[in-house]
Amino acid sequence: MKKLTLVAAIALCYLNPALASVDPAFQQSLIVANRRADLSSDESGPFQLDVDFIAQLNIPTRGHLSLKWEKKDQWWRSVVLGDYQQVEVKDGEWHYTKRNADFTPMPVVNLINLLSFGAGSENLAAKRERRRNESGVELNCIQATRTDFPKDSPHEICLSGASNEIVVDEWQDVPDEKRREQFNDYFDFGTHRFPRRLELLVDGSKVIAANVINLVVATFDPSLLTPPQGAISRRECNGLKHAIPIKTPDPTYPKPASMSGIMGDSTVAMTVLTDGSVANIRLVGRALRSMDDATLETLKGWKFKPAMCGTDPVVTDITVIVSFRLTN
Predict the structure, then answer these.
(1) pTM score of the predicted model
(2) HEC string of 18-55?
(3) Residue 112 to residues 13, 77, 168, 247, Cα–Cα distance (Å)
(4) Structural domains in the chain?
(5) What does the pLDDT look like over 112-144, one tens digit per residue?
(6) Are strands 137-146 and 303-305 parallel, antiparallel or unpaired?
(7) Is 62 left (phi over 0), alpha (psi -120 to 50) or beta?
């Protein structure tokens, strides 16, 4: 038997102010820590953020991210990872992306999510709290589930007992990865507290190590909002409703693989059009070739209720992970 899982291409983690069954003082500490780490909050003025990072590809690969920020709906960002280059512009409801590949590599997606760990405050609902000691450090931890992706596994978000800063976020990701984000060496930036060092571990292995080398108040140049020539444009309104799968037949588990007990994950990036059909199907993470071929062929026939901005259908990009797993 096989299990198929659909996930959004960029999923951010948020904290819910309306937490339940948690000590009120602890609850408030978590909310405050989250907001202080959120550089995208309304309190943030124009700034520039520069980050050096190492991503584990086939070999450790160096990269750099630069973000020039005016406000939530006006910013410019560039990412370089080895030979890969990407420039993004956000201007109002429109998001423009220029890149020298057919898709954004997952390490870049992971990095952006890692840097956005403090963003938002509406999509995690706390269930319970506990205290634990890790490497001699006292941690206050809350287990919380996501309200925007209710089938996702709970996150455990831990604050330092001494500083009340977020130091760990752990969860079980699809299909069966254990993810852990780590944050340390916080510093002051205006009303914010942001970590200099951020790491992502998957199944205990470090896949992203990021170092903030520059975070300063900086005047924003309006010319940066000019869309790059040849950029992909996507409308991203407030209250965007994500595409919903309505017809998703399963790929056939290749018989030689199933008979040999071979399992794997095929990861595919694709675009959901305004009529709910899919296009631009690209393989971004490989399993056996027979599994990949079965996945690509079947996904061509998938159908969605398109993403919506109010009453208007809009084009969106998603990532699909097809997990071939043998079960009893």
Answers:
(1) 0.87
(2) CCCCCCHHHHHHHHHHHHHHCCCCCCCCCEEEEEEEEE
(3) 12, 10, 17, 30
(4) 11-232 (2.50.20.10), 237-324 (3.30.2420.10)
(5) 999 998 875 556 677 778 888 888 889 989 887
(6) unpaired
(7) beta
